[in-house]
Amino acid sequence: MPESETAKQSEGFSELSRAVSTFVGEELVINFGPQHPSMHGVLRLIVKSEGEIVSEITPVIGYLHRGMEKIAERLNYHQFMPYTDRIDYLASMNCNFAYAATVEKLAGIEIPKRAEYIRVIMAELNRIASHLVFFGTAGLESGAWTPIVYAFREREYIVDLFDMTCGQRLTYNYFRIGGVADDLPKGFMEKARAFCDYFEPKIKEYNELLSYNEIFIKRTANVAVLPPETAVKYSVTGPNLRASGVKWDLRKNEPYSIYPEIDFDIPVSSGEKGMVGDTWNRYIIRMREMEESVKIIRQCLDKIPEGDYLTKVPRLFKAPPGEVYCRFENPRGELGFYLISDGGKSPYRLKIRTPSFAHLWVLPEISTGGMISDLIVAFGSLDLVVPEIDR
After folding, report:
1. Which one-letter DSSP state was computed for residue 211?
2. Distance CA 177, CA 14 (A)
3. What is the model's pLDDT at position 233?
4. CB burial of residue 40 (10 Å; 0-12, 13-18, 19+)
């Protein structure tokens, strides 16, 4: 090779070397969302990485803000019920439940025993339906397609039960202040029992398919660990808190409705695989909770009394002046309503506390310093619903 060509080549290598040395150490900024296939709703994460390592995460929220709390102040107490369906569209029955019970507590309204049982049956069915979506998407986020097909097949049985009860398949608006909109339809009890018999063995099938799949365990165990003290510091609740080893469930710790009459356990993570508080443990807690929900539903179906399903409440009733806070154990954690009444026909102020809002802010804590390839798996394991965050 001529000397002139060798010199040119050497100079080219030097320039390349300088470019590489300039690039090394630079942060790469990546936008996840607000529209992204791996996002659970309209949420944006500004992620900074150094190579494959996540160095900073900044959540950006507000894309789904609807002003729900302000809307509540412009409607009467009954009219706001359909809006509670939209707080967490995967757990509409549970949101209905919490809002109705909050207004009833402030107004001193007693509801029939049969309505209490119906409410708990619906809440636990919706908990299973919500956890099934989690199960299916957990598979997708770790590279397994089959679980979501199974999950939506089983979820359809629950949606059919809701459909025959209230005529809706996603946002139900079934609860009323004073009870529920209608009694259980003919054939519901038999179909609900048949579902429990059908579904219980399926959970074991899911465990064989995904929970104890070696690839899934390697993908999720010891990833994005949330220590119990950090979980408490960030007001994490529900399955995410129990996955960190903290045994706290409002159905047991601050029992409401007819839960004290029901025998069931609160699953808590023991670190069977990986570390307590990691992604796998957040997953397996929800599988255990579905088993407990089946147990609750069976008992409610056996014990439900005959009688009224609704206490008559005037359409334009006025709650007495005062304030009340109620919190309920929803599929994602604690949903709370802080309600102030000035004696008028509408809430003077309604503040909504949702679990997903608190859980979002723990994501930077558990994912910073981890591999960028683990980010979506960790994000999915928190089971966020964006309408809950923005409201």
Report:
1. I
2. 76
3. 94
4. buried
Task: State the Cα torsion 88-89-92-98 to the nearest 10°.
Answer: 10
Give me 268's structure tokens: 């808590």
Which of 226, 234, 237 has its CA nearest to residue 281?
Answer: 226
- 178-234 pLDDT, tens per residue? 999 999 999 999 999 999 999 999 999 999 999 999 999 999 999 999 999 999 999
Q: Report which secondary-structure segment, H or E, holds 364.
A: helix 363-367
H-only helix segments in 24-145: 68-72, 81-85, 92-107, 113-141
pLDDT at 325: 96
Distances (CA, A) of 159 to 9, 57, 140, 386: 68, 36, 22, 22
In one-letter notation, the amino acid at residue 347 is: P
Judged by phi (left if over 0) then psi (alpha if -120 to 50, else beta), residue 149 lies in alpha
- How many residues are listed for the chain in this entry? 391
Q: Phi/psi at 90 (nearest 5 deg)?
A: -90, -5
Rg (the chain; Cα; Å): 24
Cα 277 from chain centre: 17
Q: Are 161 and 93 in contact (CB under 8 A)?
A: no
**DSSP of 274-321:** S-TTSHHHHHHHHHHHHHHHHHHHHHHHHHPPPS-SB----TT--PPS
299-353 pLDDT per residue, tens: 999 999 999 999 988 888 888 999 999 999 999 999 999 999 999 999 999 999 9
| Partner residues linked to 329 by β-bridges | 334
pLDDT grade for 9, boundaries at 50, 70 and 90: low
Q: Which residues contact 168 (CB under 8 A, 6 or more apart)?
A: 162, 174
